[in-house]
Amino acid sequence: MHYMSGNQTFTMIKPIAVKNNKIGPILKMINEAGFRIKAMKFTHLTKQQACEFYAVHTDKYFFEDLTSFMSSGPIVAAILEKENAVADYRKLIGATDPAKAEEGTIRKLYAESMSHNAVHGSDSDENACIEGDFFFSKMERF
Ligand code: CMP
Prior knowledge:
Strand order of the largest sheet: 2-3-1-4
Bound molecules: adenosine-3',5'-cyclic-monophosphate
Number of domains: 1
CATH superfamily: Nucleoside diphosphate kinase-like domain
């Protein structure tokens, strides 16, 4: 682990949101909600990397759909910092299923479906560390 847990989370702006030119609007919402960007990269996952990132979902029926989609185009990966980062970011992005996401959340605004749901957000401090480490080395965090 490279940082204290509790005040950081990890996000990806998924291929659908990048394709729809929503990087700017989403980063604006992230900043306006009080998050600081500690690390960020514009990148494109291979299918194998997407499978590795989502390895906990290997046995799920949506695994193939999810990993094909996540490797279908560029993404933005970022580490975000704020008190209570994991829970507050999940509030900002809204429910995994955009049909259930609250008004004004990132997914309500920009998601198309459950797998094309615009952004990823870590679900625990432990996963925030693991996922941040997947994309960023120590010297890439500020
Ligand atoms: P994410 O936050 O990136 O973490 C796992 C992803 O799996 C989730 O967002 C969704 O995109 C996807 N996912 C979860 N449940 C389903 C589902 N029932 N059908 C399709 N995709 C799903």
